[in-house]
Structures are given as C-alpha cells and as structure tokens.
Amino acid sequence: MTAAPLAPPVDGEPLSIHTPEGTVRAYILGAGRTTLVLHSFNAAGSGEEVAELARSLSATRRVVLVDWLGFGTSDRPDVRYGPALYERHLELLRRAAVDEGGEDGVEASVDVVALSLPSQYVVVSAVRHPERFGRCVLISPTGFGRFGKPGGAMGRLSHRFLKWSQLGRLLFRALGTRASIAWFLRQIYVHDAAITDEQIDYAVSTTRRPGAWYAALRFVFGRLDDPRAEDAYRRVTVPVLMLFGDRPRFTDPAAARQIAEANPRLRIEEISNSGDLPHREQPEDTTASVLRFLDEAA
Hints:
Blueprint: E1 13-18, E2 23-29, E3 34-38, H1 51-57, E4 62-67, H2 83-100, E5 110-115, H3 118-128, E6 133-139, H4 153-164, H5 167-175, H6 178-188, H7 197-207, H8 212-220, H9 229-235, E7 240-245, H10 253-262, E8 266-271, H11 278-281, H12 283-294
Parallel strand pairs: 3-4, 3-5, 5-6, 6-7, 7-8
Antiparallel strand pairs: 1-2, 2-4
Helix pairs in contact: 1-12, 2-3, 3-9, 4-5
C-alpha cells in the first residue's frame, strides 16, 4: 500500500499519548469541561467520522478528539488489538486529557461521546471506575441485542488464517477501495446525498497507511467486541444517553430500550430521519441532544 501522509481530522492542538504499544494521537479544541470524543471501528475508522461533532461541541467545551491506536493518525503496530488493550488506552487517554487541562489526572472525571463499538469500552470501564466518568453519550452503541455477541472460535480461527496466510491483506485492500467504502456508507445512511467526496477520500487515505489492516481485520471478525458489555449496560451507574437514528441498520434500539427499563441511569433518544450516523445526517439535532444531556449536570 502507498504510504501517504494523513491529515489530522481537525485543526486542533495535537496531543500525543505514548503507550507500550505505540503512540496514540488526539486533538484538543475549545475550552471548558473536558469531553473525550471517540470514533468507531471499521475498515476506515478515524477521528474524521466525528470531527464535525467535535468542532460543534468545542464552542462550549474543551474537546479531546481521539484517533484510536491502529486507526487514523495514530500508530498502527502489529499488536493484540482487543478490549483489554483499548480499555487500558481509554484510561491513559482520560488521564492525558485532564492532565493537559490542568486537572488531577487520577481523580478528575471526564465526559465522553463515543460512536458505535467503543461505547462498549466506555460502559465496561464506567462500571469498574464510575469516579472516572461524568456523563456519557453513546451514539449508535453496540454490545447488546442483535449486536451483542463477540466473534467466537470461528472468528478467531478465520482471523488467524487470514492474517498469517496474508489473505487478510487482500481482503482489507478490497474493503478499502473507494467503491467498497461508498457502498458501506450507503448502507448506514438514510440519505445518500449526505455522503461527501471528502468523507470517502479521507476514508480511502486512512486505509493506505502502513499497518492499517491489523486492527481493522480484528474488527471484521469480532475480535474487538467486549463480552462484558451487555451486563455493563445493565449495571452502569453514571448517567448515559444512548442516541440512535430512527432508521438504523447496524444497531438495536429495541434491545436498548429493554435494558433501559431495568436501569434508570440509561436514557434513550432517537434522531429523526437518520441511520447509524445521526451526527452526520442530522448534525444540528444531534449536537443539540448531546449538549442538552451533557449540560444537565451544570
């Protein structure tokens, strides 16, 4: 693959978090209470997916937009990507974010806005350490209902075979083509007109980075899902807003409502006329919902 430089997802102050596995890069915007903004996982995942939302939130908040290890502008090493690694990195990110803000990195809490699968890491971590989190907004979260079962033995075997046979590189190359990315976006959007050439161009660019296939292939075979997530949604005690589009394809709002009936800390809202990326199809409505929830504590 051609190694071309990848532009930062936003024009913010860069923040580098050095971990044993590699450097994670984040970008700081605005001022106020610290809010971590976390992108989803997919073949072309990056902070660009939530860049517009991060910019909107930064009008009244200090936003730290993250590129997870293995994605975007962060390092892409060949390591064991999975819940244990990413939950550990989530804590490193929280500490770095509040340290940069002049707070006590061990005790200070942050608010979180997470898209899709990383919502699982947020709730699992919040159950174990509620003092580290303020209010959490989970956009199109997974880890329950139809999307609650991590890849089993078949997923492990398939991933190993594709990785070590090098067929995984060919699969990833196919997933990273412009045609494949455009096709996938059409599945999760209600309105094709909301898909821009700039989105597709950035997604293609991020798949061309050296090592881009390592984390993405583990996602494809369910190796990044956390089997503890569904129980964590039922037990979480910090305030959580689960935000869905009203016409999703890869989330399960009905299952979320069942969980919320048993946990008063969970709230569910739907954004009309949108699919799995409501923040991109209906940015004003989504931003309003997110801020309304995050600002309730104030």
